[in-house]
Backbone:
């Protein structure tokens, strides 16, 4: 596929004319707009680039199919396409939540495309196992998926304040609720199943690209035990604890996230 077709499909945006390119990948239930507070804090020498996964934001929804995006492979292939279309060589990739994991899987296939990965709140598995604290029991996830099917807007209103975890700033949860609510219900439901029922733990040792794992206090989606687990499994890892709370520090504390990014690129 031609570069301009890929960039149309994933609505790739270069936010400046020049600078060191840094590619930002959004998490579940969001689109690239979620990165704007961080981008506004970055200095001129950085060229921020954002995109939407197919089925999110202003991507080409006609490119979506349940078959392609029934697991991570479709999203991984699209991320590789996007980076190749930029034609800038190995890039610094910043991925929030599931996007961090998608970046790691893409780097296994194409390590030449990644200079480093900065993953904010990623997880290789969200479900608990006898010897693994992923954060959720299976029945929790099944109930979440059922809620999404019953009432998309109820799900959005329920989940947003829990994961934002900044109760003294309710406008942040409201912003996230709107992002969740504005997503396509059917696509979001399938993406949620792909994300929350996944298990990529066995692939972590294959990630040869340097990974910076950024995490926060009181993240109900990704407990610190998950971050520590990943740090032990990924060959080249650095842990960076952010002075922020919740699963969306790029929304609640964009200046903290931007400073952490700049300190590590």
Residues:
């Amino acid at each position: 596929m031609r570069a301009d077709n890929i960039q149309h499909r994933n609505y790739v945006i270069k936010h400046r004319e020049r600078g060191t390119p840094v590619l930002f990948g959004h998490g579940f239930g969001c689109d690239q707009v979620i990165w704007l507070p961080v981008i506004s804090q970055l200095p001129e020498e950085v060229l921020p680039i954002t995109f939407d996964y197919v089925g999110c934001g202003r991507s080409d929804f006609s490119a979506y199919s349940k078959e392609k995006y029934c697991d991570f492979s479709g999203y991984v292939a699209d991320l590789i396409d996007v980076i190749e279309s930029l034609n800038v060589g190995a890039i610094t990739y910043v991925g929030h939540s599931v996007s961090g994991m998608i970046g790691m899987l893409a780097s296994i296939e194409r390590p030449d495309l990644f200079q480093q990965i900065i993953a904010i709140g990623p997880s290789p598995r969200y479900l608990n196992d006898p010897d693994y604290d992923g954060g959720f029991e299976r029945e929790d996830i099944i109930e979440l998926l059922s809620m999404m099917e019953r009432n998309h807007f109820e799900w959005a209103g329920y989940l947003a304040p829990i994961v934002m975890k900044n109760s003294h700033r309710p406008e942040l949860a409201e912003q996230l609720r709107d992002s969740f609510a504005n997503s396509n219900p059917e696509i979001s439901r399938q993406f949620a199943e792909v994300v929350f029922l996944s298990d990529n733990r066995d692939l972590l040792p294959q990630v040869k690209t340097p990974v910076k794992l950024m995490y926060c206090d009181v993240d109900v989606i990704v407990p610190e035990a998950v971050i520590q687990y990943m740090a032990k499994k990924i060959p080249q890892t650095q842990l960076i604890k952010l002075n922020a709370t919740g699963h969306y520090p790029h929304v609640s504390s964009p200046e903290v996230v931007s400073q952490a990014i700049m300190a590590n690129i």
